[in-house]
Amino acid sequence: MNNKTTNVLLLLSLPPTIQQQYLEGVRQRFPDLEVALIDHVDKIDPHLESMDILIGFGPHLRGRADEVFKKAGNLKWVQALGTGVDNITDRPTLRTDVVVTNIRGIHGVPMTEAALSAMLALSRDVPRLVRNQDRHHWGRWPAKLIDGKIVGIFGIGAISEVLAPRCKAMGMEVVGFSSAPRKLDGFDRVYGRDEIVARAGELDFLVLLTPYSKETHHMIGGEVFSAMKPTAFLVNLARGGVADEDALLTALQNQTIAGAALDVFVQEPLPEDHPFWSLDNVLISPHTGGFNVEYAGQALAIIEENMRHFLTGDIDNMIFRVER
User: pLDDT tens, 213-234?
Assistant: First the structure.
């Protein structure tokens, strides 16, 4: 493949310094490529006919993915910058000959730390501490402990296999829910994900890590929330569509569950007028679970390996290919 005529588009709705890290990283490694950067999918139109390679996060295509793939006649490869490939492989307009790869193996530690920090923040009511600090108010209450509590991890993969033993080290009992139940180190028990309603009442925390798909759409809904303890918390680090947001809002408003830490939403950014913002028992973060200062460098190493294979036509040896 003649890499002098290969056009690469980076779609990155990220802070400018991180965008530049990706842009300069690709350009330095592959100076003969034509590399462009846009920060929003609405700026993609001038690039649709020419781009051979698209690098970005599936959620950043939201609202225009079908149109993009329909019009991108020269597109040959999509490198997703996350593990999830929703808004990419689930789009019917994406041609079957387009290679799709994702990023794996770098999310376990940051997502684990995000889950642990969320559980600790909810149990110690850190949002209330911050609100009190803003008001210069001295208020004290006894913290809840995560030691001795039961955490359910919905979705077992590379991330949960890092999270589970660290939860155990914190004194927690760990229950897994998987489409393929099996015995795993770090888990006390593993159930089928279709058992979540029956087992939800056992849990003090429910952490969502499963990929979003038609099968997992709204899998965590009103039945699950009604079955959970009124003292239990939800932590969603998966995708917004895994949880039924309307049912979750009702459960939080009615205190059917004690609270939630939400990092992902059906609509991102979360609209300013969304009722989640106003709930005292909700901790909101802007899809930053795996986002960390080392991520771009780790992702660029994977992009570099795949790019070298792609440019020499060695498609079979591209890593982390997503089968469709």
Answer: 999 999 999 999 999 999 999 9
